[in-house]
Design brief:
Length: about 550
């Protein structure tokens, strides 16, 4: 007879509190998913057809539109991969605290990613584009332009899929920026220049600081927030391990669902813009007659534009020291943007370019009336002037007063409103791609965030602290037009709460995350540079 004190009687099996993640998609869900994909692609194609018809463009060859379709599929594919790669971070905490079942959590997150893209400002989109070499942007519709877009996006997709397969929460933002730098370096080397001259390093440094500091902000702020919560909120259940297969108390559950939605919305608002910026480049290069200029601008703004043009021209003319521009001013302005080095021709060339733009707008009466054949050239002139002013605003050699800077800023705002715009259908298409991507392939990254960062199970308070910090950090970066990584911020936030809680972190995972962070930039640079070189050589053969 077995004693009552026997270990076999007293020992009770430990119930695993991990969520069940292996729920397959039902046939109905798969059919709905495929139907949304088909509707999204049809909506994109119809929107392009409608815009081209409205612009009066005559279609003489099908090849540019085949390239356009391929480029858009790759761009939307990047956003789809971004969705299941990065957004898994937003659902990890809500899944591992049993606040929502995995299928419900990913749909919830996907919906808020969709909304985040729709309500985004566009500032991040064009901040990313500013990293690209100006000469490639000006010829984005050429073979070199398509090689640039294909190389960037394919390199980013390859690296994202590789890190996803290994379950590493690498950054899509980090990857795309590395791809852009790789294209710039390869383009400069192929033109016989120093590789460092192919990238706007001041802008790259600004973005680099955002990417570098965001994980630190995530770690420190999440740790501090958890400690503050422990001081102010005296509910022990908030800091306890979730009960196996049981939802948390209602108020905790509501908080975690809210923070998951907030992170998803912020992710969509920030990350979705990267795809939007690249899609606009593709559209401008392929169908400049429809997308080079914002033809929706009202005619009432023409008078204001001309007024700001004259004011900006006077400011620049005053610095020209009597020099005259006899030829085309564009090469000198392009060289200034590329080299950031001012010479005696910089100010007079910029002044001449500003006057040329004003003459073009005044001649036709509004942007909408600029002939389709001239829209691309006008857009390039506006882009050159805007980028030159952006560089000039930071150039101490310009010796500009506060009044001068205010005048140039007002003029630049007019230029940007004409060239840096995103049609609603582009936002909707990217939102669909990102939202659908959220619902696929999320498991690998979720397991890493939920199980492999800390040594103990994620508590309710830790999940809330990490997501509140991630939500606030990404939203702040979006307002400043800076791309940051949802992956880095949230993963480091979870690690910060583990450290603050005394739970400890799994150093093997932290080392893997750090290795992915270190390798992402050089690998993305190398991949995109190689692809750009191969694509350009293939084009030259034909």
């Amino acid at each position: 007879m077995t004693s009552l004190s026997s270990p076999d009687i007293l020992a009770t099996p430990k119930v695993d509190s991990k969520p069940y993640l292996n729920q397959p998609m039902s046939l109905q869900a798969i059919l709905i998913f495929l139907a949304i994909v088909a509707l999204g692609l049809f909506f994109t194609a119809f929107s392009i057809y409608r815009d081209i018809a409205a612009s009066g463009t005559s279609v003489t060859t099908i090849l540019p539109f085949l390239l356009l379709g391929l480029a858009l599929l790759i761009a939307l594919g990047f956003e789809f991969v971004n969705g299941f790669h990065d957004t898994a971070n937003a659902v990890a905490t809500v899944i591992y605290t049993h606040s929502l079942a995995p299928p419900v959590a990913v749909v919830w997150s996907g919906c808020f990613n969709f909304l985040g893209v729709l309500f985004s400002t566009g500032a991040v989109a064009f901040g990313i584009v500013s990293l690209l070499p100006v000469e490639l942007i000006l010829q984005v519709g050429s073979e070199a332009g398509f090689a640039m877009v294909f190389a960037m996006l394919i390199a980013a997709i390859i690296w994202n899929l590789g890190t996803w397969w290994l379950g590493l929460p690498a950054s899509s933002s980090h990857t795309l920026i590395g791809s852009i730098i790789g294209v710039g370096v390869a383009n400069a080397l192929m033109r016989g220049r120093d590789g460092t001259s192919g990238v706007d390093w001041s802008k790259a440094t600004e973005i680099g600081y955002a990417l570098l500091l965001s994980p630190v902000v995530g770690f420190v702020c999440a740790a501090i927030l958890l400690l503050v919560m422990k001081i102010l909120i005296k509910w022990p259940e908030l800091y306890s391990e979730p009960k196996p297969h049981a939802a948390p108390p209602l108020w905790i559950r509501g908080l975690l669902i809210f923070t998951s939605a907030g992170v998803s919305f912020a992710h969509g608002s920030n990350d979705g813009q990267k795809g939007m910026g690249l899609i606009m480049l593709i559209l401008i290069g392929t169908v400049p007659t429809a997308y080079a200029l914002n033809r929706a601008m009202p005619e009432s703004q023409v008078a204001s534009f001309i007024e700001h043009s004259h004011a900006a021209s006077k400011v620049v003319d005053a610095k020209a020291s009597g020099y005259e521009v006899l030829g085309d001013p564009r090469p000198a302005v392009t060289n200034y943007i590329t080299s950031h080095e001012m010479n005696e021709g910089t100010f007079p060339s910029l002044a001449a370019l500003i006057r040329d733009i004003a003459d073009q707008i005044q001649q036709y009466g509004s942007i909408a009336k600029i002939p389709a054949a001239k829209a691309g050239n006008t857009r390039n002139d506006m882009y050159l002037a805007s980028e030159a002013i952006r560089v000039l605003q930071k150039d101490k050699a310009g010796d500009l007063t506060k009044g001068d800077l205010a005048t140039l800023t007002a003029y630049k705002k007019n230029l940007d409103s004409a060239t840096k715009f995103i049609p609603d259908w582009v936002k909707i298409s990217v939102a669909i791609a990102l939202g659908l991507g959220t619902m696929i392939g999320w498991k690998r990254i979720v397991v890493t965030v939920g199980e492999k960062i800390g040594k103990t199970h994620l508590t309710y308070g830790q999940g809330a602290a990490a997501e509140l910090v991630a939500m606030g950090t990404i939203a702040a970066a979006d307002n400043f037009g800076l791309p940051v990584s949802t992956t880095h911020v949230l993963s480091s936030g979870v690690a910060g709460t583990m450290a603050a809680n005394g739970s400890g972190v799994q150093m093997s995972t932290i080392r893997s995350l750090a290795l992915a962070w270190v390798l992402t930039l050089p690998c993305a640079i190398a991949l995109s540079a190689l692809l750009f070189f191969v694509f350009r050589k293939v084009e030259l053969l034909f």
